[in-house]
Design goal:
By secondary structure, this protein is of the alpha/beta class. It is 45% helix and 15% strand. It is globular and about 55 Å long. Bound molecules: NADP nicotinamide-adenine-dinucleotide phosphate.
Length: 257
């Protein structure tokens, strides 16, 4: 007889995590591995991926493959999906997490800034979802989890491109959920509040900003990669099979206040 917790297991599943070498992506990769998933981690920094993979294999005993590559190169995406199939024989989950940001007042934003942030945050996520979904459609099942943000819904100063991209992530999540539902592919988003990572380090170094951020969080603490990993795991596992086109804010209550 199975356990009620079977709905929360990832045993026998295979997940791609973009940007899985550090920060939130690593937190998500560890949550998926802890629940039994094998992993394919993709980012540009091979040493970081190798270190993350070594730790995950040691801690959870799953199989982990890595690809060092630039995810602005859309033409490489079918090959990334193929690597998961070649190594593990299936693909169940895509975590669309890789991203970066450029802080700049709107009046000073250049076209190059715009293209850089939009490319990795929105265009790459869109086409990575397409590459994964083409394979998931053949298998008749799959889960895609996109990384949204507080700035998907509210304005935060000096990150207007990022906000536009993350707003796009929410629209894209709903649009893909609608189109892929008949293929039994769920598409959802997790929207972290502030988590201290490479991307947010400058904000965390600024005491006034830190105090302001903390003052907005009813639960009184910043998020951790584990907090985001746990919610992404829920969106990746069978327990969320009837959930699609949704976003879950994991923000300590920021959006509720
Ligand atoms: N931290 C927060 O408070 C927060 C809040 C809301 C949403 N988010 C979102 O959460 C996601 C993860 O962010 P994070 O905070 O964990 O930042 P992070 O620590 O800087 O991690 C970003 C990851 O993306 C990878 N990446 C960036 N550009 C890439 C490219 N061109 N090709 C391949 N990989 C690339 C990075 O690896 P390489 O540099 O080695 O390629 C790294 O693994 C992002 O989508 C971010 O927008 C973060």
């Amino acid at each position: 007889m199975g356990s009620y917790l079977d709905a929360f297991t990832m045993e026998g599943k295979v997940s791609i995590v973009t940007g899985g070498g550090r920060g939130i992506g690593l937190g998500i990769a560890r949550a998926l591995a802890g629940a039994g998933s094998d992993l394919l981690l993709v980012s540009r920094t091979e040493a970081q991926l190798a270190a993350a993979a070594g730790d995950i294999v040691r801690d959870f005993g799953c199989r982990v493959e890595i690809i060092a590559g630039d995810l602005t190169r859309i033409e490489t995406f079918p090959g990334i999906v193929q690597r998961a199939l070649d190594r593990f024989g299936r693909l169940d989950v895509l975590i669309n997490n890789a991203g970066s940001n450029i802080r700049n007042p709107f009046l000073e934003v250049s076209e190059a800034d715009y293209d850089a942030v939009m490319q990795i945050q929105l265009k790459s996520a869109y086409f990575m979802a397409q590459a994964a979904a083409r394979e998931m459609a053949k298998a008749g099942r799959g889960k895609i989890v996109n990384l949204a943000s507080l700035s998907s819904k509210i304005a935060i100063p000096n990150i207007s491109i990022y906000g536009a991209a993350k707003g796009g992530i929410l629209s894209m999540t709903k649009a893909l959920a609608l189109e892929l539902a008949a293929r039994n592919i769920n598409v959802n988003a997790v929207a972290p509040g502030y988590v201290r990572t490479h991307m947010t380090e400058a904000a965390f170094q600024d005491k006034d900003r830190c105090d302001w951020m903390l003052s907005r969080i009813p639960l009184g603490r910043f998020g951790t990669p584990e907090d985001i990993g746990n919610t992404a795991l829920f969106l990746a596992c069978p327990a969320s099979d009837y959930l699609t086109g949704e976003v879950i804010f994991v923000d300590g209550g920021w959006m509720a206040a």
